[in-house]
Amino acid sequence: MVDVYVVSAFSKNNTGGNKAGLVFDRPDLTSVQKMAIAKELGYAETAFITESKLADFRLEYFTPTEEVPLCGHATIATFTFLNLTNKLSKSDYTIETKSGILSMKVGTDGMVFMEQNVPTYSNILTSDSFNACLDTNSIDSKIPIQIISTGLRDILLPVRSSKALQKLKPNFKAMAALSKEQNVVGVHAFSLEESESKITAICRNFAPLYDIDEESATGTSNCALACYLFKYVEKKSQYTFEQGYNLNSPSRIVVNLTTHDNVIDGVFVGGYGYLVENKSVSV
């Protein structure tokens, strides 16, 4: 049997968020077993945390179908749990991942921030590439559709309004095909909020190529979005995103950017979380 802790990360007012499975100190598990555990749990990602020779912790991330190099919400969930169970003795940590060594920061208020890679801006897509995926009339043509990565490649898709975003009905088979063709994890659709709002944008994230039709909170894609907005919309040091409304799991994701001469040199994603349950699964 394997002990699993279920923690929701990027919660809003201690509800909602995105659940991840956490398994600690089981270096004996094979990749096949880890994937089987992730599949049985059924969450978008499950993190496996072990000792590291290179950092404070080693984290591996599995979806129900394969291993991925990085997962924002599962990492935030991990440090939320370690903080809640008084397993942390300092505020700054490092983690070893397949995306490299990344730094973590835990605030006195329990908010956890995770370093991402600096952005890589890739190709710009036309709205026609979405013809088979969704109603292209909903796309905001004033700003580009672009692939950006701060650890995972996502297509950033601007949508005209939060109402149009809410009404999106993607063809997931076509979107999976587009994701495969563009070598991305998925599509991060967003609508900008009014400038006086404390929320920068409302988002929906689709990753059907990885058997995740929609996800309620995604750290890496919102980091990519912050870098996109820094380049095309407004240069700020902090962006706040909300996601998960269509899944009845409202989530809040905060992204901080550090810059030098208008160039991004640091990307950090942060949020709160809470313990949902612990359970045992067989392998």
UniProtKB/TrEMBL annotation:
InterPro entries: Phenazine_PhzF-like. GO terms for cellular component: cytoplasm. The keyword Isomerase applies. The active site is at residue 45. It comes from the Bacteria. The keyword Transferase does not apply. Keywords: Isomerase. GO terms for molecular function: isomerase activity. SUPFAM superfamilies: Diaminopimelate epimerase-like. Coiled coil: none annotated. It holds the Pfam family PhzC-PhzF. PANTHER family: BIOSYNTHESIS PROTEIN, PUTATIVE-RELATED, PHENAZINE BIOSYNTHESIS PROTEIN. Belongs to the PhzF family. This is Phenazine biosynthesis protein PhzF family. It comes from Liquorilactobacillus capillatus DSM 19910.
